[in-house]
Amino acid sequence: MILAVFSQVIRAFWRRFSQRLPPQLADVALVAMTAQDGHADQVMDAVVTCTVRTARPEDLPAILQIYAAERDPNDGSPRAVSDLEQQTWTRMMRSDDLTVYLAEINDQVVGTATLMTMPNLTYNCAPTAFVEAVVVAIDHRRTGIATAIMRRLLSDARSAGCNKIQLLSHKRHATDGAHRLYTSLGFEPEAEGFRLYLQQVPAAVRAAQATQH
Ligand SMILES: CC(C)(COP(=O)(O)OP(=O)(O)OC[C@H]1O[C@@H](n2cnc3c(N)ncnc32)[C@H](O)[C@@H]1OP(=O)(O)O)[C@@H](O)C(=O)NCCC(=O)NCCS
């Protein structure tokens, strides 16, 4: 219990302190984790480091695994990369305007997010940035991973001269923490988002629509 409180205090301190660090140093986030060995009274606390970096071509399987586990938490097994996924990834890796970020703990990928900077003629030709696919592995949530990735991404968008960084987050995320994550980073819910699915409506969106009607 005392250790758990201690780890929370360290985490809160690091969050405040790391905001003042240059981006290169802030890429390394301190993440307070609680590892439990199955006995309620034997909780072992450790402070571990999480590194944020841009993805490399060989990271595709690890990223797909993070996405798969988000769709189905029981889907932990690695699976083959399809031709379409490989072609899409190759295109993504070649694009100068698109960056995929990864968070790693002990060389294991635990989170990801994607940034797109769109060349733009308005706002004095400052590019506009878009964020997509922010996902953290279930076992590593609420430890500051998404915050660490987003801080790096925001810093890179600033360095790229972007005037505005936008993201859409479905209304169902108003209660699961995602909206709090973004507002804690300075995003304002000042715009109304519109979407039109041209192929498939995702299952999670269909489920959210069903509960609204
Ligand atoms: C949303 C998500 C990316 C957050 O990742 P994370 O690494 O757990 O987020 P962080 O630990 O950096 O949390 C930062 C802050 O966001 C808020 N937050 C994040 N998850 C929350 C939750 N489940 N409940 C309430 N607040 C939450 C809190 O304010 C938190 O700060 P705190 O822990 O000091 O209270 C993660 O839950 C996830 O992958 N969800 C599934 C995919 C998804 O919904 N992505 C977003 C789509 S728009």
Automatic annotation (TrEMBL):
Keyword RNA-binding applies: no
Keyword Transport belongs to the record: no
InterPro entries cross-referenced by the UniProt entry: Acyl_CoA_acyltransferase, Bact_Acetyltransf, GNAT_dom
Keywords from the UniProt entry: Acyltransferase, Transferase
Domain of life: Bacteria
Pfam hit, one: Acetyltransf_1
Residue ranges of domain N-acetyltransferase in the record: 50-208
Protein name: GNAT superfamily N-acetyltransferase
Organism: Streptosporangium lutulentum
Lineage: Bacteria, Bacillati, Actinomycetota, Actinomycetes, Streptosporangiales
